[in-house]
Protein backbone atom coordinates (compact mmCIF):
# COMPACT_ATOMS: atom_id res chain seq x y z
CA UNK A 1 0.00 0.00 0.00
CA UNK A 2 2.87 2.29 -0.66
CA UNK A 3 2.26 5.48 -2.50
CA UNK A 4 3.34 4.99 -6.07
CA UNK A 5 6.69 6.40 -7.04
CA UNK A 6 5.01 9.10 -9.08
CA UNK A 7 2.34 10.04 -6.61
CA UNK A 8 2.02 13.72 -5.97
CA UNK A 9 2.17 15.23 -2.58
CA UNK A 10 1.69 18.90 -2.07
CA UNK A 11 4.92 20.65 -2.81
CA UNK A 12 6.60 17.39 -3.75
CA UNK A 13 9.42 18.62 -5.90
CA UNK A 14 11.69 20.87 -3.98
CA UNK A 15 15.39 21.27 -4.45
CA UNK A 16 17.52 19.67 -1.85
CA UNK A 17 14.99 17.12 -0.69
CA UNK A 18 16.34 13.70 0.21
CA UNK A 19 20.06 14.13 -0.07
CA UNK A 20 21.58 12.33 2.88
CA UNK A 21 25.30 12.73 2.53
CA UNK A 22 25.85 9.28 3.98
CA UNK A 23 25.60 5.83 2.43
CA UNK A 24 23.37 6.47 -0.52
CA UNK A 25 20.43 4.12 -0.14
CA UNK A 26 20.50 0.92 -2.11
CA UNK A 27 17.40 1.04 -4.32
CA UNK A 28 16.23 -2.08 -6.10
CA UNK A 29 14.21 -2.36 -9.30
CA UNK A 30 10.92 -2.42 -7.44
CA UNK A 31 11.71 0.96 -5.93
CA UNK A 32 12.47 -0.37 -2.47
CA UNK A 33 15.09 1.79 -0.80
CA UNK A 34 17.16 -0.26 1.62
CA UNK A 35 19.06 1.02 4.60
CA UNK A 36 22.78 1.61 4.39
CA UNK A 37 24.84 -1.38 5.41
CA UNK A 38 26.25 0.29 8.49
CA UNK A 39 22.96 1.18 10.14
CA UNK A 40 22.94 -0.23 13.67
CA UNK A 41 20.31 1.78 15.47
CA UNK A 42 16.82 2.88 14.52
CA UNK A 43 14.88 5.47 16.47
CA UNK A 44 11.43 6.90 15.99
CA UNK A 45 9.63 10.15 16.57
CA UNK A 46 5.92 10.81 16.27
CA UNK A 47 4.55 13.64 14.20
CA UNK A 48 1.04 14.10 15.42
CA UNK A 49 -1.83 16.54 15.59
CA UNK A 50 -5.44 16.83 14.58
CA UNK A 51 -6.95 16.05 11.20
CA UNK A 52 -5.51 18.02 8.25
CA UNK A 53 -2.90 19.81 10.31
CA UNK A 54 -0.10 18.80 7.95
CA UNK A 55 1.33 15.59 9.44
CA UNK A 56 1.69 13.80 6.11
CA UNK A 57 3.16 16.88 4.47
CA UNK A 58 5.68 17.27 7.28
CA UNK A 59 6.79 13.64 7.04
CA UNK A 60 6.97 13.83 3.26
CA UNK A 61 9.07 16.99 3.34
CA UNK A 62 11.74 15.39 5.50
CA UNK A 63 11.72 11.79 4.38
CA UNK A 64 14.50 10.48 2.14
CA UNK A 65 12.13 7.83 0.81
CA UNK A 66 8.72 8.27 -0.71
CA UNK A 67 6.53 8.13 2.41
CA UNK A 68 5.02 4.74 3.05
CA UNK A 69 1.69 3.76 4.53
CA UNK A 70 0.51 0.78 6.46
CA UNK A 71 -3.11 0.07 7.18
CA UNK A 72 -4.66 -2.01 9.88
CA UNK A 73 -8.21 -3.34 9.67
CA UNK A 74 -9.96 -3.01 13.01
CA UNK A 75 -13.04 -4.79 14.19
CA UNK A 76 -14.82 -2.61 16.67
CA UNK A 77 -16.03 -5.48 18.78
CA UNK A 78 -16.14 -3.62 22.04
CA UNK A 79 -17.68 -0.30 21.23
CA UNK A 80 -20.18 -0.45 24.04
CA UNK A 81 -21.50 -3.17 26.29
CA UNK A 82 -25.14 -2.58 25.40
CA UNK A 83 -24.31 -2.87 21.72
CA UNK A 84 -23.64 -6.58 21.86
CA UNK A 85 -26.83 -7.61 20.10
CA UNK A 86 -28.27 -6.45 16.85
CA UNK A 87 -25.65 -3.99 15.89
CA UNK A 88 -26.66 -3.07 12.37
CA UNK A 89 -23.23 -1.95 11.27
CA UNK A 90 -20.74 -3.90 13.30
CA UNK A 91 -18.31 -1.45 11.89
CA UNK A 92 -14.95 -2.35 10.60
CA UNK A 93 -12.65 0.55 10.19
CA UNK A 94 -9.20 0.90 8.86
CA UNK A 95 -6.58 2.86 10.68
CA UNK A 96 -3.53 4.01 8.81
CA UNK A 97 -0.22 5.62 9.44
CA UNK A 98 2.18 7.33 7.08
CA UNK A 99 5.83 7.27 7.79
CA UNK A 100 9.16 8.36 6.41
CA UNK A 101 12.84 7.82 7.01
CA UNK A 102 15.93 9.95 7.53
CA UNK A 103 19.37 8.41 7.62
CA UNK A 104 21.22 10.58 10.14
CA UNK A 105 24.65 8.96 10.08
CA UNK A 106 26.37 5.80 8.89
CA UNK A 107 24.94 3.94 11.87
CA UNK A 108 21.75 5.78 12.83
CA UNK A 109 18.39 6.06 11.12
CA UNK A 110 15.38 8.08 12.25
CA UNK A 111 11.82 7.13 11.35
CA UNK A 112 9.03 9.69 11.47
CA UNK A 113 5.55 8.31 12.04
CA UNK A 114 2.57 10.47 11.21
CA UNK A 115 0.17 9.54 13.97
CA UNK A 116 -3.48 10.60 13.98
CA UNK A 117 -4.53 11.21 17.55
CA UNK A 118 -8.00 9.77 17.10
CA UNK A 119 -6.43 6.32 16.92
CA UNK A 120 -5.72 6.37 20.60
CA UNK A 121 -7.13 2.96 21.46
CA UNK A 122 -5.69 1.06 18.54
CA UNK A 123 -2.73 -1.32 18.57
CA UNK A 124 -1.20 0.87 15.89
CA UNK A 125 -1.08 3.84 18.25
CA UNK A 126 0.52 1.63 20.87
CA UNK A 127 3.09 0.48 18.33
CA UNK A 128 3.87 4.05 17.35
CA UNK A 129 4.26 5.40 20.87
CA UNK A 130 6.11 2.46 22.40
CA UNK A 131 9.80 3.24 22.34
CA UNK A 132 9.37 6.59 20.58
CA UNK A 133 11.82 9.27 21.67
CA UNK A 134 9.14 11.91 21.70
CA UNK A 135 6.50 13.64 19.62
CA UNK A 136 6.12 16.79 17.63
CA UNK A 137 2.57 18.14 17.85
CA UNK A 138 1.57 20.17 14.82
CA UNK A 139 -0.98 22.87 15.51
CA UNK A 140 -3.04 25.23 13.38
CA UNK A 141 -3.79 28.71 14.71
CA UNK A 142 -7.27 28.58 13.19
CA UNK A 143 -8.27 25.71 15.48
CA UNK A 144 -5.89 25.56 18.37
CA UNK A 145 -8.45 23.86 20.58
CA UNK A 146 -8.30 20.81 18.32
CA UNK A 147 -4.79 20.19 19.58
CA UNK A 148 -5.87 19.52 23.16
CA UNK A 149 -6.96 15.89 22.77
CA UNK A 150 -3.68 14.86 21.20
CA UNK A 151 -1.61 16.68 23.82
CA UNK A 152 -3.69 15.02 26.56
CA UNK A 153 -3.07 11.68 24.93
CA UNK A 154 0.69 12.17 24.83
CA UNK A 155 0.68 13.19 28.47
CA UNK A 156 -1.25 10.03 29.34
CA UNK A 157 1.41 8.01 27.58
CA UNK A 158 4.19 9.96 29.24
CA UNK A 159 5.61 10.86 25.86
CA UNK A 160 7.46 14.18 25.87
CA UNK A 161 6.52 16.60 23.11
CA UNK A 162 7.15 19.95 21.53
CA UNK A 163 4.54 21.98 19.66
CA UNK A 164 5.09 23.36 16.20
CA UNK A 165 2.56 25.77 14.76
CA UNK A 166 2.28 24.91 11.10
CA UNK A 167 1.98 28.18 9.21
CA UNK A 168 -0.94 28.10 6.82
CA UNK A 169 -1.47 30.92 4.37
CA UNK A 170 -4.07 33.27 5.74
CA UNK A 171 -4.10 31.76 9.22
CA UNK A 172 -4.02 34.29 12.02
CA UNK A 173 -0.68 34.97 13.67
CA UNK A 174 -0.32 35.34 17.40
CA UNK A 175 2.46 36.33 19.73
CA UNK A 176 4.18 33.41 21.39
CA UNK A 177 2.79 34.30 24.80
CA UNK A 178 -0.74 34.29 23.42
CA UNK A 179 -0.22 30.91 21.79
CA UNK A 180 1.26 29.45 24.94
CA UNK A 181 -1.70 30.59 26.91
CA UNK A 182 -4.19 29.39 24.32
CA UNK A 183 -2.53 25.97 24.17
CA UNK A 184 -2.04 25.86 27.95
CA UNK A 185 1.60 24.85 27.57
CA UNK A 186 4.00 24.28 30.39
CA UNK A 187 6.78 26.87 30.41
CA UNK A 188 9.28 24.13 29.56
CA UNK A 189 7.39 22.83 26.51
CA UNK A 190 9.00 24.15 23.34
CA UNK A 191 6.78 26.10 20.99
CA UNK A 192 8.05 26.82 17.50
CA UNK A 193 6.60 27.94 14.24
CA UNK A 194 7.24 26.01 11.06
CA UNK A 195 6.24 25.50 7.46
CA UNK A 196 5.65 21.78 6.99
CA UNK A 197 6.38 22.14 3.29
CA UNK A 198 9.84 23.59 3.85
CA UNK A 199 12.67 21.20 4.53
CA UNK A 200 14.82 23.54 6.58
CA UNK A 201 11.90 24.83 8.60
CA UNK A 202 10.64 21.32 9.32
CA UNK A 203 14.15 20.19 10.25
CA UNK A 204 14.45 23.09 12.71
CA UNK A 205 11.19 22.08 14.35
CA UNK A 206 12.54 18.57 14.90
CA UNK A 207 15.78 20.00 16.24
CA UNK A 208 13.80 21.98 18.82
CA UNK A 209 12.09 18.80 19.91
CA UNK A 210 15.28 16.75 20.20
CA UNK A 211 17.10 19.57 21.97
CA UNK A 212 14.27 19.61 24.50
CA UNK A 213 14.42 15.82 24.91
CA UNK A 214 18.14 16.05 25.49
CA UNK A 215 17.84 18.77 28.10
CA UNK A 216 15.18 17.03 30.13
CA UNK A 217 16.60 15.70 33.39
CA UNK A 218 15.31 12.22 32.50
CA UNK A 219 17.59 12.06 29.47
CA UNK A 220 20.69 12.07 31.61
CA UNK A 221 19.73 9.03 33.63
CA UNK A 222 21.43 5.83 32.64
CA UNK A 223 19.25 3.66 30.47
CA UNK B 1 -19.74 -4.89 2.81
CA UNK B 2 -17.26 -3.60 0.30
CA UNK B 3 -14.45 -3.29 2.79
CA UNK B 4 -14.25 -6.95 3.69
CA UNK B 5 -11.47 -7.88 1.36
CA UNK B 6 -8.77 -6.64 3.65
CA UNK B 7 -10.24 -8.46 6.62
CA UNK B 8 -10.27 -11.97 5.27
CA UNK B 9 -6.75 -11.98 4.02
CA UNK B 10 -4.90 -11.62 7.33
CA UNK B 11 -6.49 -14.75 8.76
CA UNK B 12 -5.49 -16.73 5.71
CA UNK B 13 -1.97 -15.41 5.59
CA UNK B 14 -1.29 -16.12 9.25
CA UNK B 15 -3.19 -19.39 9.42
CA UNK B 16 -5.73 -17.78 11.70
CA UNK B 17 -3.34 -16.55 14.33
CA UNK B 18 -3.50 -13.14 15.89
CA UNK B 19 -0.30 -13.02 17.86
CA UNK B 20 3.27 -13.45 16.70
CA UNK B 21 5.35 -16.17 18.29
CA UNK B 22 7.23 -13.49 20.13
CA UNK B 23 6.21 -10.08 21.23
CA UNK B 24 9.38 -8.12 20.88
CA UNK B 25 8.98 -6.52 17.47
CA UNK B 26 8.97 -2.78 17.24
CA UNK B 27 7.91 -0.74 14.22
CA UNK B 28 11.58 0.06 13.73
CA UNK B 29 12.98 -3.40 14.39
CA UNK B 30 15.43 -3.89 11.53
CA UNK B 31 14.96 -6.97 9.38
CA UNK B 32 17.35 -8.78 7.03
CA UNK B 33 17.27 -12.20 5.37
CA UNK B 34 19.68 -14.96 6.22
CA UNK B 35 21.36 -15.82 2.91
CA UNK B 36 20.77 -19.09 1.09
CA UNK B 37 18.05 -20.56 3.25
CA UNK B 38 15.71 -22.92 1.36
CA UNK B 39 12.32 -21.33 0.79
CA UNK B 40 10.45 -24.31 -0.71
CA UNK B 41 8.41 -24.95 2.41
CA UNK B 42 7.37 -21.33 2.89
CA UNK B 43 3.96 -19.91 2.11
CA UNK B 44 3.79 -17.38 -0.73
CA UNK B 45 3.50 -14.50 1.75
CA UNK B 46 6.44 -15.75 3.76
CA UNK B 47 8.45 -16.11 0.60
CA UNK B 48 7.63 -12.56 -0.46
CA UNK B 49 8.86 -11.31 2.88
CA UNK B 50 12.11 -13.24 2.62
CA UNK B 51 12.61 -12.05 -0.97
CA UNK B 52 12.07 -8.43 0.06
CA UNK B 53 14.60 -8.68 2.87
CA UNK B 54 17.25 -10.45 0.80
CA UNK B 55 18.49 -7.24 -0.76
CA UNK B 56 19.17 -5.23 2.36
CA UNK B 57 17.86 -4.14 5.74
CA UNK B 58 14.45 -2.56 6.28
CA UNK B 59 12.39 -1.70 9.32
CA UNK B 60 9.37 -3.86 10.11
CA UNK B 61 7.12 -0.92 9.22
CA UNK B 62 8.72 -0.70 5.77
CA UNK B 63 8.42 -4.45 5.26
CA UNK B 64 4.70 -4.31 6.06
CA UNK B 65 4.14 -1.31 3.80
CA UNK B 66 6.05 -2.73 0.83
CA UNK B 67 4.20 -6.04 1.08
CA UNK B 68 0.84 -4.33 1.56
CA UNK B 69 0.26 -6.22 4.79
CA UNK B 70 -1.29 -4.93 8.00
CA UNK B 71 1.35 -4.55 10.64
CA UNK B 72 -0.23 -7.19 12.85
CA UNK B 73 0.05 -9.73 10.03
CA UNK B 74 3.61 -8.74 9.19
CA UNK B 75 4.56 -9.31 12.83
CA UNK B 76 3.17 -12.84 12.80
CA UNK B 77 5.00 -13.69 9.58
CA UNK B 78 8.20 -12.14 10.86
CA UNK B 79 8.00 -14.20 14.06
CA UNK B 80 7.62 -17.39 12.02
CA UNK B 81 10.52 -16.53 9.76
CA UNK B 82 12.80 -15.64 12.64
CA UNK B 83 11.89 -18.95 14.28
CA UNK B 84 12.63 -20.83 11.06
CA UNK B 85 15.97 -19.09 10.65
CA UNK B 86 15.08 -17.22 7.45
CA UNK B 87 15.14 -13.70 8.86
CA UNK B 88 17.27 -11.89 11.37
CA UNK B 89 16.12 -8.93 13.40
CA UNK B 90 18.01 -6.25 15.18
CA UNK B 91 16.11 -4.62 18.00
CA UNK B 92 16.02 -0.87 18.12
CA UNK B 93 16.64 0.67 21.50
CA UNK B 94 14.66 -1.40 24.02
CA UNK B 95 11.23 0.08 24.56
CA UNK B 96 11.37 0.08 28.33
CA UNK B 97 14.52 2.13 28.49
CA UNK B 98 14.80 5.85 28.36
CA UNK B 99 16.96 7.03 25.52
CA UNK B 100 20.43 7.87 26.60
CA UNK B 101 21.66 11.37 26.21
CA UNK B 102 24.31 10.04 23.85
CA UNK B 103 21.70 8.67 21.48
CA UNK B 104 19.71 11.90 21.57
CA UNK B 105 22.90 13.85 20.92
CA UNK B 106 23.55 11.70 17.84
CA UNK B 107 20.03 12.39 16.59
CA UNK B 108 20.52 16.09 17.19
CA UNK B 109 23.87 16.14 15.39
CA UNK B 110 22.40 14.24 12.47
CA UNK B 111 19.51 16.68 12.12
CA UNK B 112 21.77 19.72 12.39
CA UNK B 113 24.01 18.31 9.68
CA UNK B 114 21.04 18.45 7.32
CA UNK B 115 20.63 22.20 7.57
Automatic annotation (TrEMBL), chain A:
One of its GO terms (molecular function) is hydrolase activity. Keywords: ATP-binding, GTP-binding, Hydrolase, Nucleotide-binding. The keyword Hydrolase applies. It comes from the Bacteria. The keyword Nucleotide-binding applies. Residues 1-25 are annotated as: Disordered. CDD domains: Ras_like_GTPase (cd00882). Belongs to the GPN-loop GTPase family. This is ATP-binding protein. The lineage of its organism: Bacteria, Bacillati, Actinomycetota, Actinomycetes, Kitasatosporales.
Amino acid sequence: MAFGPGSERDGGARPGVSSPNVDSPNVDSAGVSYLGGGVQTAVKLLVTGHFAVGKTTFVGTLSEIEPLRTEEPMTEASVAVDDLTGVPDKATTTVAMDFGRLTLSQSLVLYLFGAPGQQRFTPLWRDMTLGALGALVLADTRRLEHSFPVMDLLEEHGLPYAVAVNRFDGAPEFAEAELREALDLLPSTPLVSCDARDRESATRALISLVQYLLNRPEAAEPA
Amino acid sequence: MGGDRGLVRPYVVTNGRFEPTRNTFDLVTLVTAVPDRPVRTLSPEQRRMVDLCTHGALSLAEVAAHLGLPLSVAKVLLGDLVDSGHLLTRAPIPAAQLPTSQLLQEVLDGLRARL
